[in-house]
Amino acid sequence: MKKVIVGLSGGVDSSVAAYLLKQKGYDVHGVYMINWHDTEGVIEGSCPSDDDVLVAKLVARKLDIPFQTVDFSEIYAKRVVDYMFSEYERGRTPNPDVLCNREIKFDVFLDKALELGADFVATGHYCRKETTEKDGKKIYRLLAGKDRNKDQSYFLCQLSQEQLAKSLFPIGELQKSEVRSIAEELGLASAHKKDSQGICFVGKVDLPTFLQQKLQSKEGDIVLIPRDLPEFNKASGIKPEDFPEKLSLLAEPYSYKPEYGKVVGKHPGAHFYTIGQRKGLGIGGLKEPAFVLDIDVEKNIVYAGEGKNHPGLFRRALFISKNEFHRVRPDLQIAEGKSMKLSARIRYRQPLQKAELYMREEGAYLVFDEPQRGIAPGQFAAFYSGDELIGSGVIS
Fold first, then answer.
1. Can you tell me the distance from the alpha carbon of 277 to that of 273, in angstroms, rounded to the nearest whole number?
2. DSSP sequence for 44-113
3. Catalytic annotation on 47?
4. Residue 127 annotated in active site
5. Active site residue: 47, 100, 127, 157, which one?
6. CA angle, corner 161, sides to 326 and 114, nearest 5?
7. How far apart are CA 363 and CA 367, in angstroms?
8. 28-40 pLDDT, tens per residue?
9. Which CATH architecture has domain 220-312?
10. According to CATH, where is 2.30.30.280 located in the chain?
């Protein structure tokens, strides 16, 4: 009998995942990961706590499976939270949930599971895994979950073939409503528990307060940029047939200077803001809401634009450096100088966008069919061929 260790979070998804695996005849064990203890900056009622452990224990008891807790908080702080602080300090927009999966759930947790004699680890992610063969070698395909509204494949965009080989996603074929229904029928303690929000294992946070644990406040100017800045037209005349020679220009972020606009307010620190952000600017007297167009952490300036359709919010392309490019499917390599049409997203829940991926010596250029809103350095761009996630990378 194959042994599977399920990451029981106390939520309904991992609870039903454990149940489904037991129904299939696996030797199922539940493990609760303790990854964070500090509650500074965490919004009350949203932080994983002793309540989650209790619910996970009750679920394990109901399902009659062994249960234990493991503490990865020290490793989580170093690999995920410290990385997040470092990225914000540099003026970038990290995704800690992607890092949490790559560095914790499918790395140290997987190692611990194997140490405990497991054949697989399982989670309650809404995604699917398929196995195929190519040239006599097993290939693991990471597919979107059947519930398109809950598909979480994006969060797993940094997984490797080795990690996928040891992973199971039991609820990927189900709709969320079906998962809830199963939990209710079984009388599981997690059946009506709300889905977790915010940062993986930390909870929903007040980001500036959370970041102030390590990043200092420093007042600076908010500069409002007009819509007719010539900078926004630099790539407008480039035609599709010119893309291969104009990739760097297409992917180049807009460049701003204080003299391009006017000071309309103050902020507590540029590193507390992200591109596309609306809340927290506190600018009054405008006809439309203001959004962050860019941040300069060196000069401590936040550049903003009026209106959700401000041209500074939209770009046609992005660049991923060679050392930040990751292949979930290494066998689907694109040779340097070649390109591939695919779909992509730059954030969770964003509908897939048609694009073309160009491979060059210095890295990869992703050119979208339509300009994309809020492309920010530090975000993960994930690439899909149909339903399959084939690779990803950190936006430069």
1. 7
2. TT-S--HHHHHHHHHHHHHHT--EEEEE-HHHHIIIIIHHHHHHHHTT----HHHHHIIIIIIIIHHHHH
3. no
4. no
5. 100
6. 125
7. 13
8. 999 999 987 655 5
9. Roll (2.30)
10. 220-312
What is d(CA 348, CA 303) in angstroms, rounded to the nearest whole number? Answer: 25
Query: Which part of the chain is CATH 3.40.50.620?
Result: 3-211
How many Å is the Cα radius of gyration of the chain? 22
Q: Annotated catalytic residue: which of 47, 127, 157, 200?
A: 200
Give the three-state DSSP class for 21: helix
For residues 104 and 96, give the distance between their C-alpha atoms in angstroms, rounded to a whole number: 11
Using DSSP's 3-state secondary structure scheme, residue 209 falls into helix
Among 254, 257, 270, smallest CA distance to 311 is for 254
Residues of the chain with CATH 2.40.30.10: 314-394
Say what percent of the chain tops pLDDT 70.
93
The CATH number corresponding to 314-394 among 3.40.50.720, 2.40.30.10, 2.60.290.11, 3.90.76.10 equals 2.40.30.10
Q: Has residue 209 got a pLDDT over 50?
A: yes
Q: CA–CA separation, 374 vs 348, rounded Å?
A: 13
Q: Is the pLDDT of residue 7 over 90?
A: yes
Pair 304, 293: CB distance under 8 Å: yes
User: What confidence score (pLDDT) does residue 41 get?
Assistant: 45
The 10 Å Cβ neighbour count of residue 326 is 19
Rounded CA gap, 93 and 211, in Å? 13
- Phi/psi of residue 331, nearest 5 degrees: -75, -15
Find the DSSP H helices in the chain. Answer: 12-23, 50-63, 73-76, 82-89, 96-100, 109-115, 161-165, 176-186, 207-211, 243-251
How many CB atoms are closer than 10 A to CB 88?
Answer: 25
- Which CATH number is correct for 3-211, 3.90.950.10, 1.20.1250.20, 3.40.50.1820, 3.40.50.620? 3.40.50.620
Three-state secondary-structure class, residue 346: coil
Q: Provide the pLDDT for residue 43.
A: 44
